[in-house]
């Protein structure tokens, strides 16, 4: 497997699907984002969102969960040439958009499209992988997108 | 609507808010990981410290912890109507067990929405630091706030 085949540049990969229950939305919100529209159905109905919806940070963290799963699976399948690519901690992201609320009961499909792999001048041997992250609800509406950046060491 | 709530009118450009101190425990990190990185580490990861897949959780965890601090500093006693996103996020240093996070929020700019005169968009810059004064993360983040006195001619 070449590095290009491993990274599948320009190809959109489905990472997984997740149904957000009211219970887990409230549990996350109670801990990290206790705004009324993430915690309480009645308050949410009266808010701009019109119904209980997940914290944007929860939908992002869930994207990460399925992304890590997918990367680990691909690393299992790595058969060279060269040693298995290494991933460093992500350095950030751009243009994160919470486009639509993720409502309780919504099943969200998470995808990733690797866009480019550029040398990092300050870190010989490492390159910066830029990826487009997206998430869609059952109606096919895009609910989340951002462009993430993660350093990768590969031969 | 109570008069104490922070509304669009009070979020003037240049205004700075302090984020409350938050201690990050090993239990807290384990709880976040169990939800969002539940798979055991790849066998090679522990053998190769450079392979920091698990560190991916650190940035998003920092984001979630920051959100709690933002809620306490501003949002919970405000007319906040949610956020459309984050224009730019930089994760400069990992969050580790034993860290104490703090930081500040600055209002960069604001405007009343033409399409919804009762609602304004406030652009914040958030900076989160650890106990050594290192910046852990910084981001620019627009948030919608209701106006205290909506104007039809705005």
From TrEMBL, chain A:
Per its UniProt record, what InterPro entries does this chain match?
Answer: HotDog_dom_sf, MaoC-like_dom
Give the highest taxon in the source lineage: Bacteria
The MaoC-like domain is annotated at: 18-111
Q: Which Pfam families match?
A: MaoC_dehydratas
Specify the protein name: MaoC family dehydratase
Automatic annotation (TrEMBL), chain B:
Gene3D superfamilies noted in UniProt: Hotdog Thioesterase (3.10.129.10)
Q: Where is this region: Disordered?
A: 35-55
**So which domain of life are we looking at?**
Bacteria
Q: Domain named FAS1-like dehydratase: which ranges?
A: 14-138
SUPFAM superfamilies per record: Thioesterase/thiol ester dehydrase-isomerase
- Protein name as it appears in the record: MaoC family dehydratase
